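BUG: 3D viewer hangs when loading the predicted structure for this chain

Environment: internal workstation, default settings.
Expected: structure renders.
Actual: progress bar stalls at 90%.

Input used:
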Amino acid sequence: MMLLPFLPVMLLSARAVLVASVAAPALTFRGTDPITGQPVVCDRCPPGTYLRARCTMTRKSECAPCPPGSFTELWNHIGKCLRCGVCGHDQVVKKACSADSDCQCQCKDGYYYQKNYDMCLRHRECPSGEGVLTEGTADEDTVCHTCPNGTYSDTMSAHQTCTEHKSCRAAGQQLVLKGSIWHDSLCVSCTELQSRDGASYLREILPAFFAHHTLTVKRLRRIVHHLPSEDGKKQAGTSTLNLPELRVRINAWVASATAQQIRRLPEALIKAGANNVGERLQNKLRRIDCNLNELCALANEVDVVLE
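Structure tokens produced before the viewer hung:
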């Protein structure tokens, strides 16, 4: 009975010895002496080496270092080292191959490892209206989130976070269009009220507008074809333009269009079959015009009082 308190300790010790013996690498292997034909127990070669000559009854195993470009990671008795691996597509070397370990690879910048496909995939780009919550790494994809109230993102990016709407009051200006998740607030100063058309303010958010609303290449070609011009002519050569070329055409038109041409843009979108998009843009322009009229009326009242 006095031995019982020591039984758990003995069991734990026995278990530790068993685990150690299982985890420990086999340092020997059984072979046959090539001269006598008798069984022999030979030493294995340590990692970073290979078995150049087997042992005999009178000679130990002869190990040699792995030559450059090869390796062994385990105790072994192979006659040749393993060839170093090569990083795959869209991968870079994280750790170079050495005599006792193969090379380690990771996805290159802008990519992450997708286990299900066993390949590197490009980091997701957060669309307009969403910002980066967590930037992608070599092992994880980008995490996006919808911009919270008071913030926006006007571009597709794997790095840009949501930006706070600017404060018109802080800048000594008046709010002419409240910001949304995909564009900033538009502000106007009292000195500009009489000199700027509402379409001029709409121009400021047009690049973000086209970036936010998903339109097919076919639809964009029709839109570019119908973009308002001074002479009323349609733009030619749009049927073969790709997406980047179409965006360049649109941005160039936005930069050079007159206020009247911009006012006709919602109608052009509707003619191109983008009815919902055209109506949304028309609503933005109406809100700008309405706010400008109210601000102008208020400014005129102030001027009358001051006189």
